[in-house]
Design brief:
Oligomer: single chain
Radius of gyration: 14 Å
Helix content: 25-40%
Strand content: over 45%
Structural class: alpha+beta
Largest sheet: 6 strands, mixed
Shape: globular
Strand order of the largest sheet: 2-1-6-5-4-3
Number of helices: 3
Low-confidence stretches: none
Number of strands: 6
Length: 125
């Protein structure tokens, strides 16, 4: 299994969110990616790549905040097959701790993130 390659994708995912690097996120995300989370009133929200990138562009890079403490971690990685991996990750973004299920596939020899199940909690100060 390509554990090192999957870990590298996740490291780049963490770094891209930390720096708000939408170009890097675009590279990591498959064109057909969907991001799922709780929307308003607890309804399922499904966001396509283009709209998610637009949302991320509105964020301020964490690196610009001197009080920000970076907190990202791979909690688990499971391989469903040689070309399919599921990772549970934690990352901090702004005033949120996110726990995400990141689904990845190797397509034409390249690992891509194909879907994300996103949860977030507000950090209480």
């Amino acid at each position: 299994m390509d554990t090192l390659q999957v870990k590298e994708i996740l490291k780049r995912y963490f770094d891209a969110f930390y720096e708000v690097n939408v170009d890097e996120l675009s590279t990591l995300f498959h064109e057909a990616i969907r991001i799922y989370s709780h929307g308003e009133n607890g309804a399922l929200e499904s966001i396509c790549k283009e709209n998610f990138i637009k949302i991320v562009k509105t964020f301020r890079p964490n690196s610009e905040n001197p009080d920000f403490i970076r907190d990202d971690e791979i909690l688990a990685i499971d391989f469903i097959s040689e070309d399919v991996a599921v990772a549970r990750v934690k990352l901090r973004f702004d005033n949120y701790i996110c726990t995400d299920i990141v689904n990845m596939m190797r397509l034409d020899g390249v690992w891509s993130i194909v879907s994300i199940l996103d949860t977030k909690e507000v950090i209480q100060h």
